[in-house]
Amino acid sequence: MTQPLPSIDQAFLLNFLEDLLNTPSPTGYAQAAIARIDQELAAFPDLERRTTRKGALVVDWPGQQARQPRALTAHTDTLGAMVKEIKENGRLKLSQIGGYAWNTVEGEGCTVFTSREREGGLLAAGRRLRGSILLEKASGHIYGRRVAETARDDENMEVRLDISTVSDDETRQLGVEVGDFVAIDPRVEINEGFVRSRHLDDKAGVACLVAAVKAMHEAGVQPVQRTLLHFSNYEEVGHGAAAGIPPEVCELVVVDMAAVGEGQNSDEFHATLCAKDTSGPYHYDLSQRLLRLAEAHGIPHRVDIYPYYSSDGSAFWRSGGDVALALLGPGIDASHNYERTHVESLLATTRWVMAYLLE
Ligand SMILES: [Zn+2]
Fold first, then answer.
1. Residue 182's closest CA among 235, 234, 109, 74?
2. Among 92, 98, 96, which Cα is nearest to 112's?
3. All residues with CB under 5 Å from ion ligand 1
4. How far apart are the CA of 40 and the centre of ligand 1, in A?
5. CA 332 from chain center: how many Å?
6. How far apart are CA 359 and CA 157, in angstroms?
7. 334 alpha carbon to ligand 1 midpoint, in Å?
């Protein structure tokens, strides 16, 4: 007889997710999102929280036993960009952070975090300048058909800042410098249970983990094993969880997005277990155990293979981590583009995480 799982505060899950999505955190500049997660988890005094030297958040959650510690990881860093060049006309050229096509962010708003403008003596507390990512020759009335025909690449894309500047000197005066971080607007909207936003990869996974922690605390239940929660800040560039998972951990479950699209088994209404991605197959026994748990608890789930995908779990394996490794997560449509999922998928993922923690 399977024990019922704790009930999930759905309003909390969606509110926290929206808040996290609206907290800019391109890879390398994810500290605000890490702090936001830390703040949320501070409500549970039995959790021991620390930030690694690399900047990830690691949470130690005591279990009924500590003989076979487990870990779960989700990443809060997102795609973004860095100022590559300040052009003579004061606009910016960018260098991408993470893998995406320029056309997926064309016309999107963005924020430049200046590193040179010091407020209160704090370098990190720079100004936020707003702008948008556009084709350099963007005007249809000037360039005609060329707007449609130009390749979207590093050369042809630029940032138009919403501030008066017509020269590189003026832009530098504003505090902008090569190497400054740029966050791409998430543009969050929640309609009829659908969550539409950039960066659901993997803030959706983070929100599911935090919602599971909250639900289990409110139900007064503890994980069966001591569990470490690792909130990663360098996943999109391939080495997030290469550090921060202690060597005594026996099993690692990555909570990250499932790739939804043509030919895929995943969708926006189930949680999906990844059998294999670009980095190869995941751990068979742990994956099978997770599938049996999903069946036992009636959790809507799928199994899938992701063609252009690698995870923080693969990063940990590659760094020498010796664990059983599995990956599950919510279905995200149009990933590394303007993404979307549904609350059903978030709830299924959260329930699956709890089923794992409790057995
Ligand atoms: Zn991801």
1. 109
2. 92
3. 201-202, 256
4. 21
5. 12
6. 50
7. 13
Peptide bond before 202: cis, by omega within 30 degrees of 0?
A: yes
Measured over the CA atoms of residue 96, residue 99, residue 101 and residue 104, the dihedral's sign is negative
Q: Which of 18, 158, 235, 251 is the catalytic position?
A: 235
Give, rounded to a whole angstrom, the gap between the first and last alpha carbons of the chain.
13
The residue with tokens 């549970």 is 44
Q: Is 235 a catalytic residue?
A: yes
Q: Which residues pair with 133 in a beta bridge?
A: 159
Phi then psi for 200, rounded to 5 degrees? -60, -30
- Distance (Å, rounded) from C-alpha 81 to C-alpha 108? 13
Closest C-alpha to 114, from 173, 175, 163: 175
Going by DSSP bridges, is the β-strand pair 251-255/324-333 parallel, antiparallel, or unpaired? parallel
The most distant pair of C-alpha atoms in the chain lies apart, rounded to whole Å, by 71
Beta-ladder partners of 110? 131, 184
Determine the residue type at 81: A
CA of 44 to the centre of ligand 1 (A): 26
Cα(256) to ligand 1 centroid in Å equals: 5
> pTM score > 0.90 for this model?
yes
CA distances, 148 to each of 45, 133, 152 (Å): 56, 16, 10
Length of the chain: 359
Q: Quick one: tokens of 161?
A: 């800042």
Task: Compute the distance from residue 75 Cα to the ligand 1 centre, in Å.
Answer: 7
| pLDDT per residue rounded down to tens, the chain (359 residues) | 588 999 999 999 999 999 999 999 999 999 999 999 999 999 999 999 999 999 999 999 999 999 999 999 999 999 999 999 999 999 999 999 999 999 999 999 999 999 875 554 444 447 899 999 999 999 999 999 999 999 999 999 999 999 999 999 999 988 999 999 999 999 999 999 999 999 999 999 999 999 999 999 999 999 999 999 999 999 999 999 999 999 999 999 999 999 999 999 999 999 999 999 999 999 999 999 999 999 999 999 999 999 999 999 999 999 999 999 999 999 999 999 999 999 999 999 999 999 999 99
Whole-number Å distance between alpha carbons of 311 and 333: 17
